[in-house]
Write a structure and sequence with these properties.
The chain is of the alpha+beta class. The chain has a single domain, classed as tt1808, chain A (Alpha-Beta Complex). Strands 4-7-9-10-11-12 form a 6-stranded mixed beta sheet. It has a 3-stranded antiparallel beta sheet with strand order 1-3-2, covered by helices on one side. Strands 6-5-8 form a 3-stranded mixed beta sheet, with no helix packed on it. The longest helix has 17 residues. Pfam families: Uma2. This is Putative restriction endonuclease domain-containing protein. InterPro entries: Nuclease_put_TT1808, Restrct_endonuc-II-like, Uma2.
C-alpha cells in the first residue's frame, strides 16, 4: 500500500473517526494528521488475503480474532491508528472495541517499494509500544522472502529472515507453514505499483 499525506487540518481522534466514515478510501491517523492508503499490487492483495485466510482457519474457535487490512490498529498509549495488512488479537480488551484492535499479538505488513522503509522503521517503532505484540512479519511481494521480528523472553526484538525452502514459525499463534504456501500461484516480478 502507498501512504500519502492528505492536505487537511489537524483532527482529533473523534473527528478522524467521523470524517473517515464518509471517505471512499482508508486513512491512517498519526499525530493528528491523516494519510491516504492507496491500493497496492495484485500480489500485495493476494498475499494479504492468503495470510488472513490461513490465520482465520488456524485460529477457528480459539478466541482469537483475525483482522484484515480493513481493521485499524490503535498504537498503545497514543491516538494513532494504522491499517496493517493482517493482524491477530487474542486479547479480551479488543473484543469490546468496534472500530479497531489495540493489543494484537501478531501484525503482518506486505511490503511495497513505497512503504518498505516506513514499515521497517517508523511504523515498527510505533508497533513496539504494544506490550502484547510478539511477532511482526514483513513479507515481500516480489520475491519469496519474509523478515520476522520476534520479541524474545528478555523483551528484545530479534530478526529472522525466511527464504525459499524455509518453514515460517509464528510463535504468537502457534503456527508453522512452508514459506512457499503464501506465494503459490503468484507471478513474482519486480514491483511496478
Amino acid at each position: 500500500m502507498i501512504v500519502v499525506k492528505e492536505n487537511s487540518p489537524q483532527l482529533t481522534p473523534e473527528e478522524y473517526f467521523a470524517w473517515e466514515e464518509k471517505q471512499l478510501e482508508k486513512h491512517e491517523y498519526i499525530n493528528g494528521e491523516v494519510y491516504a492508503m492507496s491500493g497496492g499490487s495484485v500480489n500485495h492483495g493476494r498475499i494479504a488475503i492468503k495470510f488472513t485466510a490461513m490465520f482465520d482457519t488456524h485460529l477457528d474457535n480459539n478466541g482469537c480474532i483475525t483482522g484484515n487490512s480493513d481493521i485499524k490498529v490503535n498504537i498503545v498509549t497514543t491516538n494513532n491508528y494504522t491499517y496493517p495488512d493482517a493482524s491477530v488479537t487474542c486479547d479480551e480488551r479488543d473484543k469490546s472495541t468496534a472500530n479497531y484492535f489495540t493489543y494484537p499479538c501478531l501484525i503482518v505488513e506486505v511490503l511495497s517499494d513505497s512503504t518498505e522503509a516506513y514499515d521497517r522503521g517508523g511504523k515498527f517503532r510505533m508497533y513496539r509500544n504494544n506490550p502484547i505484540l510478539q511477532d511482526y512479519l514483513l513479507v515481500s511481494s516480489t520475491k519469496i522472502e519474509m523478515d520476522l521480528y520476534r520479541k524474545n523472553d528478555a523483551g528484545d526484538w530479534v530478526i529472522i529472515n525466511y527464504q525459499v525452502g524455509d518453514t515460517v514459525e509464528l510463535k504468537s499463534i502457534n503456527l508453522s507453514f512452508p514459506i512457499e504456501q503464501v506465494y503459490r500461484g503468484l507471478i513474482l516480478t519486480p514491483e511496478s505499483e
